[in-house]
Amino acid sequence: MAQPAVRSRHTVLLTAVVAAGVAAGVLPFEAPAAAAYPQRAIRLIIPYPPGGAGDIIGRILAARLGEAMGQQVVADNRPGGGQVIATQLTARANPDGYTLLLASATHTINPGLLKKLPYDSIRDFSAITVVADSPLLFLAHPSLGVASIQELVAAAHARPGRINYASSGPGTGGHLSVELLKRMTNIDLVHIPYKGAGPALVDLVSGQVQVMCTSPLPSLPHVRAGRLKGLAMTGRARSSAAPEIPTVAESGVPGYESTLWYALLAPAATPQPVMRRLHAETVKAIRLPGVVEQISALGAQPIGNTPQEVTKFLQSEIARWTRLIEQANIRAD
Q1: Which in 61, 185, 249, 277 has the greatest CB count within 10 A?
Q2: Residues 83, 86, 90, 92, Cα dihedral to 10°
Q3: What's the confidence (pLDDT) of residue 36?
Q4: Which of the pair, 21 or 273, is modelled with greater confidence?
Q5: What is the pLDDT of residue 49?
Q6: Cβ burial, residue 85 (10 Å; 0-12/13-18/19+)
Q7: Rounded CA gap, 258 and 263, in Å?
Q8: Cα(21)–Cα(325) distance, integer angstroms
Q9: Who wins on pLDDT, 8 or 287?
């Protein structure tokens, strides 16, 4: 007859423990769940082709995160479709921490650029951290005769609609960065879209086009060789990759900022213990001296902010790029 009373005392004790945990904002048995993850390889989906800065940063992260997590993190390149293919794949994956996405600025451009996306860029994802960001570099062919943003703006005012600029395609970071400059300085430049940054940069070097805004990684060698003029970096501060080049903001356009960034996202509803582990290990990994050095060599800098900060950042980026896309009447085609 005493056994039910024992069970009752156990039930009361368990109920009290659970209630205390809930009151403290901790779900019951979270620690064992977090400790058990991961038990197999993790897939990091990279929505860019191999070889670019985003791919390199993703592979650096995969290697170090794998070491920290005790399981392999496999880099899975899924380029194409304006990054929609890779992003949709992640959104539809099981929210168990075994599928992650290295999203970029395109993640916040697409909602304004594409009328129908097969996912919601905020609701269908759980933000982990911004891994790194990098400024873009405004470039000009020497024949244009400008060596700064101030001179470019003056030349564009003197010759409205007669100076052209290349981009790697409509709605890309480089395209929108120039459109942002146009809006903020009231200048008229003619857009020449290409199918990728590579061919656009080739034509800029040959003088077929006059201006471009693109990643410093492939373009700085041309600046150092005198084939192109480096006008300004688009970040908030000067880049360690070329500290001699000023920012657009300090070149007479206060408030200007546009960067390429890479954020680690998981599918929505990924368990919080898993999210906390991923955030802690990712931030530790990108702050290792060797990783900082590798990322800096790409003209980028590690970030490592909180999930809440990432979510607010994504929301603000979607709002500002959507507004610019509507104002400039930019279309994906």
Answers
A1: 61
A2: 100
A3: 87
A4: 273
A5: 86
A6: middle
A7: 15
A8: 47
A9: 287
| 291, 60 Cβ separation under 8 angstroms | yes
The structure tokens listed for 159 are: 């010759």
Average pLDDT over residues 190-202: 92
Task: Describe the strand order of the beta sheet including 164-167 as a list of residue ranges.
Answer: 190-193, 164-167, 211-214, 137-140, 229-233
The band of 9, judged by pLDDT with boundaries at 50, 70 and 90, is very low
Q: Where are the domains of the chain?
A: 39-134+259-328, 137-251
**Record: fold of 39-134+259-328:** D-Maltodextrin-Binding Protein; domain 2 (3.40.190)
Token pair recorded at residue 248: 């657009």
| Whole-number pLDDT of residue 3 | 44
Which DSSP string corresponds to 277-331?
HHHHHHHHHHTSHHHHHHHHTTT-EE----HHHHHHHHHHHHHHHHHHHHHHT--
Mean pLDDT of the chain: 90
39-134+259-328 with 137-251: one CATH topology? Answer: yes
